[in-house]
Design brief:
Radius of gyration: 17 Å
Low-confidence stretches: 76-82
Number of helices: 8
Mean pLDDT: 81
Number of strands: 0
Distance between the termini: 38 Å
CATH topology of the largest domain: Rna Polymerase Sigma Factor, Chain: A
Strand content: under 5%
Order of helices and strands: HHHHHHHH
CATH class of the largest domain: Mainly Alpha
Shape: globular
């Protein structure tokens, strides 16, 4: 796999945003992820650089939670130009996703937001293709049920 770092930067940023729910902290964690990635040049040449990037990001996010003072900072929900309907849909979708187990949330983020292939998700999470596929299907089914209940069908 040829790893284009420009393409991966946005994906790692989205991943960090998902994990820490704070855009400023996510920016810092993303930069730190790439600094640590380049520090370990011996690992980069050995195999799975994408999985390694996500592993670094995940560990940095965990460390950030350990250091946090439990004072969440508000983030902007949508751009100023977004319509009310799009804002309502975005909020409903975020709330629906937040009700899912964290491991399913993470897999859905990697698959649909970061547009990773199932094979890449398997490398990152250490799960089999079957397990990843099952979690994706289960998560989507639960989301459909939740959104139907809220009349977003």
């Amino acid at each position: 796999m040829s790893l284009s770092l420009q393409e991966q930067y946005d994906k790692i940023y989205k991943y960090c945003c998902f994990k820490v729910k704070n855009t400023h902290l996510a920016e810092d964690l993303t930069q730190e992820t790439f600094l640590r990635f380049f520090d370990q040049s011996s690992y980069i040449s050995r195999g799975k650089p994408l999985a390694y990037l996500y592993t670094i990001a995940k560990n940095l996010c965990i460390d950030a939670f350990r250091k946090a003072d439990e004072q969440p900072l508000p983030d902007a929900i949508a751009d100023e130009g977004a319509g009310l309907k799009a804002l309502e849909t975005s909020i409903a979708l975020r709330e629906a996703v937040a009700t899912l187990p964290e491991d399913i949330q993470e897999i859905l983020l990697l698959r649909f937001s970061n547009e990773l292939m199932v094979k890449e998700i398997c490398e990152i999470t250490g799960l089999s293709r079957f397990a990843v596929g099952r979690k994706i299907n289960s998560g989507l089914k639960k989301l459909k049920t939740i959104l139907r209940e809220e009349d977003f069908s």
